[in-house]
Amino acid sequence: MTAGLLRSYACRMDLGQLRSRARAARKVLGELTYGMLVYEFELYAMRSRAQLENVFLLVTFGDLLGIPVLPPLLHAAPAAARSARL
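-> structure tokens emitted (86 positions)
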């Protein structure tokens, strides 16, 4: 009996309504799949980018203001001079 009801309901709907419902169902399934598979990775990427931007700004403006954010790299200078001579 349900198949008969479904058939009669589908016959009453025109092709435009069927297409719009199919489009809506596809959109819902796409959003559901995106939420299950990709959303958490996207949030992690945005947070990581924001943290890197904050560190960059801290180092840049700290250097401009004269606040030593990074330790001086005096121990690396002799090694760089040696490698330049080679």
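DSSP finds four helices and no strands in the chain.
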